[in-house]
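Worked example 3. Consider a protein that binds shikimate-3-phosphate.
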Amino acid sequence: MNDGGLIARPGGPLRGDVRAPGDKSISHRSLILGAMANGVSEVEGLLESADVLHTAQAMRAFGASITRTSTGGWHIEGRGALIEPADIIDCGNAGTGVRLIMGAAAGFSLAATFTGDQSLRGRPMMRVLTPLGQMGASWICREGGRLPLTLRGGSLSGVSYRLPQPSAQVKSAILLAGLNAAGETEVFEPEHTRDHTERMLRAFGAEVRVVDSSSGRAIRLVGGQTLSGARISVPGDPSSAAFPLVAALITPGSEVTVRDVLLNPLRTGLFDTLLQMGADLTFSNVRESGAEQIGDVTARHGPLEGVIAPPERAASMIDEYPILAVAAAFARGQTVMRGIGELRVKESDRIAGMARSLRDSGVMVEEEPEGMVVTGASHTNHGVRGGASVQTHGDHRIAMSNLILGLAAIEPVSVDEAEMIGTSFPGFHELMTGLGADLLGA
Ligand code: S3P
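Given these inputs, the predicted complex is written out as structure tokens:
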């Protein structure tokens, strides 16, 4: 193992009351829309993770002034337009960052070159470039539509685009480009995906129309709208809250509350699935905060039953399958996860990564091209063995999921690299040890 690893050792119950870091999706969007808007935006609770800080740096390069205030808020002064950056834009590990910024930039008469870390340079960008190209943007890129690439924007026309795969990133990129395109832009999504862009565009004063039908949802906006600065309060990220909550569900004697968690129904698929598995999960203090619903979520240890996770729920829990697979490892019977081919093009191939690491911890997993089936170890009456030395391939969620497994397994679990956990969950180590977890640097 190299110096940057972590070991999770099985230990006593987890107990406590914590706040998850700010939502990553909303944090990226607040910086991008704030930079595009006219005037001042103030953001409270921004996720100060490596991914989001790359987006802040990128939006500065596109002309916005972005500063952290002495009280931990973020102050953005947008110009109402983006200007051509003087240097290459490095989006680090962030697929959301680069895809949304490309959409935003495409609406302006400029050229910009984007790159990212090794993981991001391997991820598909044609899914965004194809619709942006239909709108009139052009680009030069590596074989297969990979970063680094140079995008040239300006003089766009509205488009009507049907998403070939459920993707809030692609939807958002098209809508952001559509803000500065001639005429109307429409995105049609057969399956609903997270709607933070639509909600936040309205908070910045844009008019966005959403029309639901039996075949899906159409989102429309007319180009030529100028955004005005707004105040945004970023709720806790349910995708991060999932780690301490699942840790409590699988570790005997545990009770953990995570406060102020985003409860947008397009993000709560994991909670729905855990409830279906019989998890002792309760929601309190549910309320509106700005454009979103939030609440406190409490998880208590108890038995879990394997279930079929409905494929139509996939988009609302797309980042949570690795930790769901861990919950499934502790459940009685099989948990079937299908319709999740998109997991193969995330920060790493998460189906392969979880199948391999769970097997190394003694869990039975059948890997399918677009899914996986996990057989819970509780039928053996011996529990989950653990003991894996996990290669994370630079993927934060593979690292965190396997560490959570290690807290409740029989043998410790180690991960080869932990630094990238900071792309989405800075403070994961401290938060988990504060709850009683035995996590040690390796
Ligand atoms: C995100 C959308 C999802 C998700 C990602 C964040 C967003 O990606 O996996 O972590 O903020 O729009 P896709 O849109 O590619 O499914």
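Take a moment to read the result before moving on. Residues 11 and 407 are 6 Å apart (CA to CA). The chain has a mean pLDDT of 97.
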